[in-house]
Amino acid sequence: MPAKPRIRLPDSARVGEVIEIKTLVAHAMETGIRKNADGSSIPRLLLHSFEAKFGGREVFKASLHTGTTANPFISFFMKVSGPGEFEFVWIEDGGARITERQTLRIA
Amino acid sequence: MSWRGPGPPHAPPAQYRHCLRCCQDGARIFARIVCGIGLILSLAFTSPRFGTAGAQERDDRIERALETYRSMMKADPWSNPGMLDVDRGEALWRTPGGPKNVSLEGCDFGLGPGKVDGAFAGLPRYFADADRVMDVETRALWCMEKLQGFERTKLITRPHPGAGTPVKDLGAIATYVASRSNGRAFAAPLSHPRERETLALGESLFFRRSGPMDFACSTCHADSGKRIRLQPLPFFAKPDEARKIVGQWPAYRVSTSHVMTMQHRIYDCLWQMRLPEIELGSEASVALISYLVKQAEGGEISIPGMKR
Predict the structure, then answer these.
(1) What pLDDT score was predicted for residue B56?
(2) Closest approach of chain A CAs to the CA of B262, in angstroms?
(3) pLDDT digits over B107-161, tens only?
(4) Is 0.85 exceeded by the ipTM?
(5) Residue among B30, B165, B168 with most chain A CBs within 10 A, to mutate
(6) Domain CATH code at residue A21
(7) Residue A20 domain flag
(8) Which residues of B touch A28 (CB under 8 A)?
């Protein structure tokens, strides 16, 4: 059973407030540089990008590379424009996607 | 091979100097973590290399930087990837599984079937149904075997994860159950004679030298201030050191990117001591855990911890 990504939003926020969004995802982030015991290369398998949308609009985007930790923790800040739903997407080499949604409550 | 950066000797290189500021003014946690790692590395490579006074100063600085890193992690438990396995363990706990397709919610950790809140604080303890003393992992193993119908031999063959792979299901379940005692203090019962017997066995194993290297646990863990490479080793015979450490296991291990459980920790210690492989759930493993928990009695539980 793979671990589900963790998303942390404030319990509620006011319009105009700057909030911190924290995300944590389980991934080995295999660099492609390491070798097996028999000397063969372990193929690269990274989450190469992370995107966050709020109400369908992109609010944060990051490219991840071989120097990014396994199980990456990414946090970012956003000014709240109103109520809406977040969509977080991590894209793996080869195109597989991990998607998580969460609604922001407005006080 | 000392790292030669600009700036005065004994100071972190310029590119990490802002870390000291960002650590102080409470800037973003993410930046602080990155800074913390850089700071630790820069301190490790720029400090003086000769003379005991210099070495001592370097050790203290590394220890302080590591402590800053750990306190940042503790201040925001959210940055600990071990939490992913707590969630995974919870899902495994609730989801029907195994050949019998039942959930573990009927598993009794000492407070009644399905009651996990606070149960870990009262382990290891004697369980009449199994007629033996069990720690959290041994109990989870027993429940997976008896309730869900898993084969015991399969669960205890290669039960611990390799570097870079997540903790196995059993370990994730144990981590979840243990985390439900966070904020409580260790208070394992010693009312049953078997509990006292297990503790006595654990204590004698802790001090018993054996194997080709003539090692005992106490060879490394019975003095303050000892370490392996950069890792300080707790002195378990001293309760205040045990109280600080034991409640952090299971812990997320940064160097191997997975959660390491207490049974895994002991397995690895014994491997390093060149002793025969200790079996998950064996009497000896539970006895050693009983001894560690007894030494840490009253210590706060804060799981998952965060290790190098």
Answers:
(1) 77
(2) 21
(3) 999 999 999 999 999 999 999 999 999 999 999 999 999 999 999 999 999 999 9
(4) no
(5) B30
(6) 2.60.40.10
(7) yes
(8) 164-165, 257
Give the position of tokens 């969004």.
A21
Q: Looking at the structure, tell me whether residues B242 and B210 fall in a common domain.
A: yes
pLDDT digits (tens, 9 = 90+) for B155-212: 999 999 988 889 999 999 999 999 999 999 999 999 999 999 999 999 999 999 999 9
What is the per-residue pLDDT across B214-255, written as a single tens digit (0 to 9) for each?
Answer: 999 999 998 888 888 877 899 998 899 999 999 999 999 988
Q: Given B40, B59, B79, which residue is the final one in a domain?
A: B79
Encode A35-58: b = buried (16+ Cβ within 10 Å), e = exposed: eeeeeeeeeebbbbebbbbbeeee
* CB contact at 8 A, B19 and B12: yes
Judging contacts by C-beta atoms under 8 Å, the chain B residues touching residue A2 are 88
Q: Residue A22's domain spans which residues?
A: 6-88
Chain B residues 230-289 within an 8 A CB cutoff of chain A: 257
User: Which residues of A are less than 8 Å from B29 in CB distance?
Assistant: 75
Instruction: Confirm whether A96 is domain-assigned.
Output: no
Cis peptide before B304 (omega within 30 of 0): yes
Stated pTM of the model: 0.79
How far is the C-alpha of B35 from the C-alpha of B294, rounded, in Å?
37
pLDDT of B299 higher than 60: yes
Of B36-50, B68-82, B289-303, the range with the highest mean pLDDT is B289-303
- Cβ atoms of B182 and B80 within 8 Å: the answer is no
